[in-house]
Amino acid sequence: MLAAGREILGITGALVYACFVSLILKLFACTIQQKFIGENLANFVSVKRMVGINSDLIKSMRLILDEPGMSYAKVAILVGGPDWPTSVLCGLMKLKLLPILLGTLPVAIIIVPTLLTGSFTYMASLELENGEKEFPWASVLGTIMAAISAMVQFSAMITAAYFLEQTSSTRGDEIAKLDVDQEVKACEDKDEEFNECYKEATKWPDLPILPKAILASAFLSMIVACYLVQLFSADCFAEYQLTYTIEEDLDGNWLNLILPLGWIAVSLFFASCGLLCVYRQWANKAAREILKTAVRPITKADCPSDEESCAGA
Predict the structure, then answer these.
(1) Do residues 266 and 274 touch, judged by C-beta distance below 8 A?
(2) Domain that holds residue 121
(3) In terms of domains, do 21 and 84 share one?
(4) What's the predicted TM-score (pTM) here?
(5) What's the rounded Cα separation, in Å, for the pair 201 and 211?
């Protein structure tokens, strides 16, 4: 955004504008997750499972978010908590949107240093016509802002974790009284049974030769791909900086970014992923066979109608 807005708004104006737009995007994302996912899909067990609605951590979060007013603990959760469970949980709890967005506004303390890190890094790469750096100080500021960004983000997460732990330890009785979602629990129980069977089916000494060979091949392919990229990165990918363009520096084709050795690394990576998928398919089938012999077959009637991902169904 700095590159596009510098000529119109100047450097300072472009940075302020970028910070404003980034904050709006964050609030917009929270709105989508709360209103369109959390509230509209509140009856979908799959959504509640992904949130972890029955876990003690989320129950502690529910107690904090359900408190009246805007406490420091609530702001810490809205700012430092993970986006998905926090915003979607607000929708599941039918909380009002405006207070939640107001409590999320302090996230600017995370957005600003992060954005400045990228902006200063970009400015450090700019050169004048004589080859000298246009902003020789930008590299140092970029490093400083990167350190500040890391500290701010870490502090936000630690603060949120502190209040969740405090709530869990001091309000255990209230957490225990919160309702357990029985539909989610039913699917979680089925998953637990399936996971035990999966562990049994994938014990290395008991694996047939073919699954062993597939898994070993996936493992070796990934190792070779990673080592090629780490040890021979200059031979795998063409040099490409932040200020480069595909038209001028890659002859108009982005595939020129990957050199021949790079194509080998990329091919090995995707081969590893493909082999792993094949192995997982076999392992899931083997686990279902064990499950059928251990207990009665699981049917879709065991799970809510929208939850087709229950193990063994």
Answers:
(1) no
(2) 2-177
(3) yes
(4) 0.72
(5) 11
| Positive/negative CA dihedral, 279, 282, 288, 293 | negative
Q: What pLDDT shows up at residue 313?
A: 42
Rounded to the nearest 5 degrees, what angle is found at the Cα of 14, between the Cα atoms of 11 and 15?
A: 85
Residue 309 lies in a domain: no
Which tens digits make up the pLDDT trace of 63-96? 999 988 889 999 999 999 888 889 999 999 999 9
Q: What is the distance in angstroms between the CA of the first residue and the CA of the last residue of the chain?
A: 48
| Residues counted in the chain | 313
CA distance 253 to 239: 14
Task: Look at residue 74 in the predicted model and tell me its pLDDT.
Answer: 94
Q: Among 5, 8, 28, 26, which residue's Cα sits nearest to residue 119?
A: 5
Three-state SS sequence of 268-304: HHHHHHHHHHHHHHHHHHHHHHHHHHHCCCCCHHHCC
pLDDT at 122 over 50: yes
| pLDDT for res 219 | 96
